[in-house]
Amino acid sequence: MTATIERAASALPVTLSPAWRLCPGCRALLYGEKVMRNAGVCPECGHHFMLTAAERAAQLFDEGSVALLDVSAPSRDALNFVDTMPYRDRLARARRSTGLSEAVLCVEAAIDGKPVVSAIMDFRFLGGSLGAGVGELITQTAEHSLRTATPLLLVCASGGARMQEGMHSLMQMAKTAGVLADLDEAGILTIALITDPTYGGVAASFASLCDITIAEPRARLGFAGPRVIAQTTGEKLPPGFQTAEFLLERGLIDVVAPRPELRPALSGLLTLTCPGQPGPQPAPQPEPPAAAPDAPRPLPAEPCADPWLAVGLARDLGRPRSADFLDSLLSSYLPLRGDRAGADCPAILGGIGMLGRQPVAVIAQQKGRTPKELMAHNFGMASPAGYRKAGRIMRLAAKLGIPLITLIDTPGAAPGVDAEETGQAMAVAESIRRMLSLRTATLAVVIGEGGSGGALALGVADRVLALQNAVYSVISPEGCAAILWRDAAAAPQAARALQVDAGSLLQHGMIDGIIAEPPGGAHADHQLASALLNTALREAVADLVSQPVEDLVRRRRKRFREFGDA
C-alpha cells in the first residue's frame, strides 16, 4: 500500500528557502537559512512562516520514517471552467510550480517511533483550496488510517473552496466528514494541526471534526475570511479575530503550540492513546498498586464524627484543589479546552494523561484557593459550557477505550441568567445520561464539596469514592436550613439531618469507599493527600479496566436504578 522509504525520500518535493526573507511580523530582514534552522520561525518576533508539505513532514516525523501512501486522485475539470484562464491551465501551472499532483501530501510515518498516518496540505497549490482531488486524497488517507488502525494527523492549510469545481468542491465537505465518522466508530484517534490560514470548506469539515485540535500561534481558522465578514456585516472585527489565541479563549481549539513544541505534543498524544481498541481495555502491562512511587501505607479512613465539621473541612481554603491533584497524579498531561460552541468554562478542567502506566481521561471541578482564583473559576460552579466540555472528554474516553476519572468539588452548578438562557438544566441532564451509558470504565471521587445536581452530573460512575472529610448533598446545609427551618443559622442542624459526611454516605450506599486524608485533614499535608489519592485511584482503575465494558454499563445502570427502590 505504500511506496518504499527510498522512493518517498526522493519523491518529496523540496522548496529551497530564499536567501533573505522579510518577516511580516516585525519587518526584520532575515537570512533564509537561519529562519529554516529555527523551524521556519522568526527569531526576532516568533512569526511562523508558511511551510511546504515536504518541509512540514521533515519537521514533524522521524528521519527515514516517511513513506508516501499509494493514493491518487487526479483533479478533473468537470465544468470546463474558465475565468481569467482555463482551470486546467491553472492546475498544470500549480503542478509545475509545486511538484505536487494536488494540494495535499499523503504519508505514513512515525513520531518518536510511534506510527501515524498523515495528510499534509500545501497552501502553494491553488491556496490549498478544497476540490475533488483534495477531498479524495484526504478520504483515502483516512481510510488507510482505518484499515491499519493507526492515528490520523491532518495538517490543514486552506483558503477555502475550489470554486472552479462548483458543487463538486462543496460535496467534499460531506465526504470527508463521513470518513471521520468511520474513524470515530472504530475508536481511532484523529488530530488536526491548524496552520495559517485555514478557511472555508476545510475549516467547516475535517479541520473541525478531529478529537484534538492543535494550532500554531496566530494561525487563523474560520468559515468566512475577515475581509468578507467585515464587508458583509459592516462590523469592526475584534483584535486577534479568528487567530488561534482568540479561538483558544473561546473553547474552539485545545492547544496553541509553537512549532518547536509540536513534535513533543504530538508524541505525547500518541503515547496517551490506544488506537483501534474501542471500549475499555486492560493496561498493556497492568501495574500493581504497590508499584506506585512512594506509595504511602493506607491510613485508617475514619469519617468525620460531626457532619457540620466535615462541611467546614471540605470547604477549607487550604485544601488541595483539583488542579493540585492533577499536577501530582498525572504525567504527560494534556489539558483540553472548550465546548466547541464558543466557550471554555473555567470551573471545569479536563484532559488526558498517564496515571502510572495507564492512560486516563480526567474531568475535574476547580474552585481555586485565593479570592482571585475563586472568582476566576466561578467558585467551581460550572456553566452549561462546562458540562458540554465535560461531554467532549467523556466521548473521547469512550472512543479511545481509556478510563474516565472525575474529581468533584463544587457547591453546585452555576446559577444566574446566563446559565439559564444557555440551558443549565439540559446540560446537567445530558451529562448524567451520557455517564450512565458511557462505554468505558468510570471512577468519580468527591474531593471536597459535592453540591447537588452540579456534582451528580460528574458522579454517575462505576465506582464513587470520597475523601475522608468530603461532603455530598442534595443542597447546601445553609440552603436547607433557610428553606425548612426558615433560619440559615440552623445550618449545622441541617447538615446533621442531611447526613452529608462520608461515613453516612457510605452507610447509605451513595459512595463505595472512603479515601483517608492526612491527620488533621487534606489541607495539613498536600503531598501526603495526593499520595493517598494516587494509591486509591490506581487500585480502583486497575480493577475496573479488567472488567468487560458491557458488564460495567449494565451494573452502572442497575446501581442507579436501585436508589430508592422499596
Identify the notable features of this structure and list them briefly:
566 residues; alpha/beta; 2-enoyl-CoA Hydratase, Chain A, domain 1; 2 domains; eight-stranded mixed sheet; 39% helix; elongated
Write the layout of secondary structure elements.
Layout: H1 5-11, E1 20-22, E2 29-31, H2 32-37, H3 53-60, E3 67-68, H4 87-98, E4 104-111, E5 114-121, H5 132-148, E6 152-158, H6 167-186, E7 190-199, H7 200-203, E8 212-215, E9 221-222, H8 226-233, H9 244-249, E10 255-256, H10 262-272, H11 307-315, H12 322-329, E11 331-335, E12 348-355, E13 358-365, H13 371-376, H14 384-400, E14 404-410, H15 417-421, H16 424-437, E15 442-451, H17 452-456, E16 463-467, E17 471-473, H18 477-485, H19 491-498, H20 502-507, E18 513-515, H21 526-544, H22 549-561
Parallel strand pairs: 5-6, 6-7, 7-8, 7-9, 8-10, 13-14, 14-15, 15-16, 15-17, 16-18
Antiparallel strand pairs: 1-2, 3-4, 4-5, 11-12, 12-13
Structure in words:
With 566 residues, this protein is an alpha/beta fold. The protein has 22 helices and 18 strands. The strands form 3 sheets. Strands 3, 4, 5, 6, 7, 8, 9 and 10 form an 8-stranded mixed beta sheet that branches. Strands 11, 12, 13, 14, 15, 16, 17 and 18 form an 8-stranded mixed beta sheet that branches. A two-stranded antiparallel sheet has the order 1-2. A hairpin with a 2-residue loop joins strand 12 and strand 13.
